[in-house]
Each structure stands twice: as structure tokens, then as C-alpha cells.
Amino acid sequence: MRSDGDGLQAADARLARRLGELRAEHGWSLEELAERTGVSRSALSRAERGETSPTAAQLNRLCNIYGRTMSQLLSEIESEPVMVVRAAEQSVWEDPASGFVRRSVSPPYPGLRGELVEGRLVAGADIAYDRPPVPGLEQHIWVLDGALHFTARDVEHHLTAGDCLRLRVWGPTRFRCPGPDDVRYALAVVLP
Does the pLDDT at position 180 exceed 80? Predict the structure, then answer.
């Protein structure tokens, strides 16, 4: 997660601390969490110590086991929520390994069930999630620029600028940017 230079390190440290707290709240050892998520014990340990930031796929697996969306988890490490989320204050999280950038435009807020995310994938990026963070999660994917190939329930949807895909997510999904340009999309997420 990042907002700017120093903000990156501070946000990564808060994320590391929160991941450790969540594991402790469940009373799981690193080995137990590794078995439950399929993420290696060493990767979990490095993430909790703040030595590395988890990848998008790893963070998705952690969110699934903790019953949170990615935005919910990331909002837990931010300061008090506000009604108007200014562009300069929207948290940004990057996964350099996959070429994924995620801006939390409208993060989760107590009493509200929806959130809005801006996603960006570089040309050629391919991210597969083995499960949704919350089964039955409602998603609306609106492509703003470029092209996105999105797969759910073994059906690949080819979306271009202006297209919107609406669905509930129950199983594995895949976001792929076929290129030649990067893709930018809005993702509206509504808890079941």
C-alpha cells in the first residue's frame, strides 16, 4: 500500500502489524495459517515483520481466511474514515510483481456495504485469485481505458472501454490485460 514515499513504509508497517494481529486473534501459528491459505510460512512471516508486502494473490488468500475484502483489510490500517475521500487521500497499493495498482476510491465505511476501487494492470499482466475474499461478493467491473479479460466460472469475458460486467463471485477469478495498452477499470464491490 502506498500514498507517497514515506507513506509507503508507514502503510506497509501498519499492514504488517494488522496481519499479525489478525492471526493472533484467531489463535493460529504461522504453520496453521500457511496450511489454511496455501501461502508459505516464510512469506507470511516476512509480511508480518514488514520485510515484504504480500502480493495481490497472497493478500486475497489472507482476506479470504479472515472474511474480509481487500478494501476492508486495507481500511483497517488507515486513519478514521471520512465522508469525502479526496483524490490525494485515497490509498494506493501496488503489486510490482504482477503489474497491479489498486486505488481505494471509496473504502469501506461503517454502515455501508459497498466500496469503489480503481484497478490498473499493465499490458500483459495476469492475476488469478483462487477464491473470492468473501463468497458471493457482488462485483461490477467497468472498464475505463484499455481492454480487460475477466474469467469467472470458467467463462472468459472480453471487456473494452465502457463495458461493465456485473456478477457475484463464488470461485476462482482471473484478471488479464491482453494489451497492447494498459487497462484501467472501476470495481464496485458490495458485500452479500
Answer: yes
Q: In Å, how far are 21, 49, 84, 190 from 116, measured between CA atoms?
A: 26, 29, 13, 9
**For residue 124, is it left (φ>0), alpha (ψ between -120 and 50) or beta?**
left
114: which 3 cell numbers? 459497498
CB atoms within 10 A of CB 136: 10
Rounded alpha-carbon distances, angstroms, from residue 117 to 43, 91, 124, 128: 26, 10, 21, 18
Residue type, 175: F
Cell digits for 99? 503489474
Judge contact between 104 and 123, C-beta under 8 A.
no
With both helix axes pointing from N to C terminus, report the angle between 5-26 and 41-49 in degrees, rounded to the nearest 10. Answer: 120
Structure letter (DSSP) for residue 69: -
The pLDDT tens digits for 24-36 are 888 899 999 999 9
